[in-house]
Amino acid sequence: MNSAPEPFQLFLSMFATQLPTLFVCLVAGLVIVSRWKSASSASLWALLGFGLALILCFALPLGQTLLQQWVLKDGQPQGRMWAFTTFAVVGSVLHAGVYALLLVGVFAGRKE
To answer: What mean pLDDT value characterizes the chain?
Structure first.
């Protein structure tokens, strides 16, 4: 009997951890769009930051699910473990990009 979770169940369990971030990104997007006229350059950067975070809410659990399916198939996971580290580093760099975009949004359009 195979005790490994189905790919869809695995995706849902990992996606569930992203729900708070997803909710914040959606609310932030609405706030940014509603206040666009008061600070359009800052709003653009903030929208890009929260947009990237929103995309990562779906892309990272999906990528992790596909990666686990690939690494664990064919009974040779030792030779493919590098993929988990690579995926984690790429995810970390993308999250750093979110923070960088939000930081630019904080200071965009400010006068000295």
So the answer is: 91
HSE-up of 20 (CA within 13 Å, CB side)? 1
Q: Which residue blocks in the chain are alpha helix, DSSP H?
A: 7-16, 19-34, 40-72, 82-107
Domain residue spans of the chain: 7-107
- Predicted model pTM: 0.87
Nearest to 65 by CA among 41, 44, 87: 87
Alpha carbon separation from 109 to 7, 27, 45, 49, 60 (Å, rounded): 45, 23, 11, 16, 32
Q: How confident is the model at residue 81 (pLDDT cuts 50, 70, 90)?
A: confident
Which pLDDT does position 38 carry in this prediction?
86
Q: How far apart are the C-alpha atoms of 84 and 2, rounded to whole Å?
A: 23
Q: Note whether 47 and 27 are within 8 A (CB).
A: no
- Which residues lie closer than 8 Å to 36 by C-beta, 6 or more apart? 43
Nearest partner of 98 among 64, 67, 57, judged by Cα? 57
